[in-house]
Amino acid sequence: MNETARNEAEYLTRLRREFHAHPELALEETWTASRIEKELDALDIPHQRVGATGVLGKITGERAGEGSIALRADIDGLPVHETLNVPYRSTQPGVMHACGHDAHITALLGAARNLTQVRNAFAGEVKLIFQPAEETGYGARDFIEAGHLDGVERAFAMHAASYLPVGSVAVVEGLNFAAVDHFVLTVGGKGAHVSRPQEGSDALFIASQIVVAAQGLITRRTDPVEPVILGIGKLHAGTAYNALAQTAHIEGTTRTVTDESRIRIRNEFLDLARAIASSYGADIDVTWREVTPAVINPATVSAEVSAVVERIATLTRDRPYSLGGDNFAEFQQVVPGVYAYFGTGNPSVPNSQNSHHNGNFDMDEAALPLAASVYAEYALWWLGEGRNRA
């Protein structure tokens, strides 16, 4: 490793560890946003806040011409207690960068550093999107509604992947993540003593029937080869052991891969819940939130990114789609864009192959310079020969 490469690796490792030690939950990323801004200031990159904790930086090329590309990194941490015993472990009890967003921030800042050094090599503009609140499905819409994607011709994001080896980057055409919805359903019953159930309407019993019957919508109303999830993770009801529950709260999610299934599952679930509640003398109230559409990588842009990746990394397409979600999909709905994955796993680096959203998640930081290079190289390609081909 030459001195320049070594200095870059040390810079990125130091930066990633600083972010790792200071995780913040969705929409609370105040320290994170300020630290990003400090780094952008040091690089002489103009920036502005988007919402309370989003940051937008802009790098303008010195060549004559036009063009615009957006590079996105998410910046929020998770409500996970870190169990790693490392010098850079989280300083925030119960909060951790357990999904690699610290590396995403670092890689994008590394790309920004690289791009500022070659402003004379490109025309147009690179927009750096540091998006808050991805884990809760917020943040992306703020950039879109503020007009920061207007005129942008390509969007690109990457995610750390502990299941991929360092040195590899996965680019998968088509479906990558599911559409995600979140719901809270309240059953309104009528309290009574357990010895006189005929005088009440047991919200706990009704909610239980809804939870069980809902799975039939997947096993008996859905094509068995179509990936669909109707998952219920919370059921709260009752205030006393000897009383019928007056209310019950069900909280869950749907994961679907087509617009038709997304609408159908929602409607069938609500019809089912209303019918069950009504048959036992209760009613329901529902709050339903569309968290994010599906992440679908278009063929043309996937081919573009793949060609750039092949010049500097090991390209793989061996990544099955997931029924997780990421609201980079909202950017894809307004700008042609691709979501890729950079490998951070290394059997010789402790904990680097552990699963994400885990208290002992870590990574091989040798992945950081490569991730920064992929961000920067795709931006340079698009603002150079890429947009002229399109």
Explain the overall architecture:
The chain is of the alpha/beta class. The protein has two domains: 3-176 and 294-389, Aminopeptidase, CATH 3.40.630; 179-292, Alpha-Beta Plaits (2-Layer Sandwich), CATH 3.30.70.360. Helix content is 34%, strand content 25%. The chain has nine helices and 14 strands. It has helices at residues 3-21, 30-42, 101-116, 140-145, 203-219, 259-279, 299-312, 328-332, 367-389; strands at 47-50, 54-60, 68-74, 125-131, 154-165, 168-170, 174-177, 179-188, 229-237, 247-256, 283-292, 295-297, 314-316, 337-345. An eight-stranded mixed β-sheet has the order 1-2-4-3-5-14-6-13. Strands 9-10-8-11 form a four-stranded antiparallel β-sheet. Helix 3 links the parallel strand 3 and strand 4. Helix 3 (101-116) crosses helix 9 (367-389) and helix 5 packs antiparallel against helix 6. The radius of gyration is 24 Å and the shape is elongated. It starts with a helix and ends with a helix. The mean pLDDT is 96.
Count of alpha/pi helices: 9
Named CATH topology of the largest domain: Aminopeptidase
Basic shape: elongated
Mean pLDDT level:
96
**What portion of the residues fall into strands of 2 or more residues?**
25-35%
Broad structural category: alpha/beta
Q: Which residues form runs of ≥5 with pLDDT under 50?
A: none
**Radius of gyration, taken over Cα atoms and rounded to an integer in Å:** 24 Å
Number of domains: 2
Query: What is the share of helical residues?
Result: 25-40%
Tally of strands: 14
Order of helices and strands: HHEEEHEHEEEEHEEHEEHEHEH
Main pleated-sheet profile: 8 strands, mixed
CATH class of the largest domain: Alpha Beta
CATH superfamily of the largest domain: Zn peptidases
What is the correct CATH architecture of the largest domain?
Answer: 3-Layer(aba) Sandwich
Distance from N terminus to C terminus (CA atoms, Å) equals 36 Å
Please give the order of strands in the largest beta sheet: 1-2-4-3-5-14-6-13
